[in-house]
Amino acid sequence: MSDLRDDLQRRAAALDAADVLAKRRELFALDDSAVYLDGNSLGALPCHVPARVADVINREWGDLLIRSWDESGWWTAPERIGDRIAPLVGAAAGQVVVGDSTSVNVFKAVVAAARLAPESRDEILVDATTFPTDGYIAESAARMTGKRLVPVAPADLPAALGPRTAAVLVNHVDYRTGRLHDLPGLTAAAHAAGALAVWDLCHSAGALPVGLDAHHVDFAVGCTYKYLNGGPGSPAYLYVAERHQAAFDSPLPGWNSHTDPFGMTPGYAPADGAARGRVGTPDILSMLALEAALDVWDGVAVETVREKSLALTDFFLECVDAYVPEGRVVPVTPAAHAERGSQVSLRCDGGLSAGEVMRQLIARGVVGDFRRPDVLRFGFTPLYVGFADAERAARVLAQVLAETPGEVPA
Amino acid sequence: MSDLRDDLQRRAAALDAADVLAKRRELFALDDSAVYLDGNSLGALPCHVPARVADVINREWGDLLIRSWDESGWWTAPERIGDRIAPLVGAAAGQVVVGDSTSVNVFKAVVAAARLAPESRDEILVDATTFPTDGYIAESAARMTGKRLVPVAPADLPAALGPRTAAVLVNHVDYRTGRLHDLPGLTAAAHAAGALAVWDLCHSAGALPVGLDAHHVDFAVGCTYKYLNGGPGSPAYLYVAERHQAAFDSPLPGWNSHTDPFGMTPGYAPADGAARGRVGTPDILSMLALEAALDVWDGVAVETVREKSLALTDFFLECVDAYVPEGRVVPVTPAAHAERGSQVSLRCDGGLSAGEVMRQLIARGVVGDFRRPDVLRFGFTPLYVGFADAERAARVLAQVLAETPGEVPA
Fold first, then answer.
1. Which residues in chain B have their CB less than 8 angstroms from residue A276's CB?
2. How far is the CA of A195 from the CAs of A120, A173, A287, A295, in angstroms?
3. pLDDT tens-place string over residues B233-283
4. Separation of alpha carbons A221 and B210, rounded Å
5. Residue B57: which of A49, A62, A255 has the nearest Cβ?
6. For residue B60, what is the nearest residue in chain A, using CA coordinates?
7. What ipTM did this prediction achieve?
8. DSSP result, B55-115
9. Whole-model pTM above 0.90?
């Protein structure tokens, strides 16, 4: 065992030494006491964000007060920050706008997609394994546009598409299993069936190339507090493909989306471009914290991040396989690279409580999370997680499992 | 003139000396170089907010990371902060939830009100002079619930109510004119007609008593960045009267409103109570900045604020009357206390450009704003504006007007 460990640790050190992203970790407020593998839930704090937020509060709000809406660029922040996110998801400028929560943006996107479809297309397909909020909100969008919501397992989507399909809403990466869905293929299949494709990028943006424009995605949404490190509950974003912008019919036509918001006319006339996706007054503190956080991406290609992410998750799976006795945990994240996001999910077998195992792991400095009933999640964020972290996490997991008896089924 | 000025300045000094709220100004990051009369647009910065936000960022996000959702009380912030706002708007605990923008909350409230009405009630009445976003969003809510939107001037609302009215949406204080609408009377009239009343409190919460519970208001929304000083674009709030909570049918049933959000079940089961008004992940930085900002209300009764607000606006109108030659500006804010909010709006007559006048005022340290085409707005925020400020503002206005010729109509 100790030979095995020495070998894995030597390899981890070599991989870290060769890692072109290794220096990026210094940009984050992380110490080495813990291995943080929960950046797929809440990204770590970039070191320079506190000073930027302090300036926003003290100078822009405190001193300049109302003038900051113009002078500090507050008013245009949603589009400006959208253009910072755009290259990370493969979108040309002018198609992404930041604001509201992911749930609210799912509502805008699904309603808008439903409205673009002819009446005869009366079904909205939704990824049946999706993060729940997408399903709940899609159900509301369907109800309010006179459509029927049809939950379908992603693998069955191509067969479920048909002349009645208005739109399909899919998660790019499954939040529970870490499975990466085939965005190019499913988008093309939707289009071939005459339907529109709406993608939720919460678990892929900042972790792997998305290629929204290249794959002709129609609408997309995503959060910014996972791999984009925007901070807890930081604003989400909405992508409306340029070809749909002129017909984009938002169910939330707030004054910020008006073509002349300060005209304050009683009649609604929508703005052109990404701004049409705005609703109310933007949440400036959170939004400008996010803007600052995006600096850590300067000079980083998402392809490089993906390469490291796959190497990290491969190595972690290898370490788990080496350290953990067979049958205690079973990977539910696909082994095939084409089907893997940037997390590894392990199912606890043999009556083990995933919640209890994760509590033990966290107590020993390995921070992941769990999803009921039995899944341990380990997120690999290539900007600040290294190969030694992966080895340590697997090793501590093996220790915890060795000390945690399986529960005896009743 | 100088006798008049001496007299007004002496009276201002006496009023400030007797003002029980005068010391509250020290809680705000304001210097005396300017008179800030735009707190009805963006409230001033409470001095202790920067340190609190720094702690949220550095310790709660940076150090505790994901643990803060539980340990730092992030998850329950929307209800907890709602309960801080509740007494300011006359609501018992458990009925106010913080999150999203005012526009998004208008959507929730109007859709929910429409859904509570029988099908035969197919009209939603909206204040025709409302802040535009309310009208735009109400139109969308009407469209998506199969109702018809009918804009009606507030004075005509009682006559417009009838057996077809499902709900009525009114602004408590008109953003342009500063007119205070009769919340008890219009709510009672709506109820007498069998309709529900939805109130927008953006320009009244924190400025005057609202009495949501006492007057049996059904739904209410409001922002927190004006008289509540939550910071630019800070989260809004939604009030659902306790008697409607069980039937509250949100059009935005995001996972945060689920009765067991971490069960992550595909079926939606709404939470009880105020939490049902939640949607997506709360925007923690902005939300906790707001929570800290609310400390300035500790020990302050809103009735005391109202008393000072009326005295301030009375005094400002008196000073304007004394300093400004007749016919240059005309108050559009009602003289009657029962019809006045906490701002004074002055219409520029004789071809004067309100925009130009306001630019001159700001250059001379009197910060208000203007609304097209011809209205100067001066907001009086009793926690940090005093009587000497009111006198100075009126005096500088008179100077600016004396130097600004009216434009010759073409």
1. none
2. 12, 21, 33, 37
3. 999 999 999 999 999 999 999 999 999 999 888 899 999 999 999 999 999
4. 38
5. A49
6. A232
7. 0.97
8. HIIIIIIIITGGGHHHHT--TTHHHHHHHHHGGGGT--TTSEEE-S-HHHHHHHHHHHHHH
9. yes
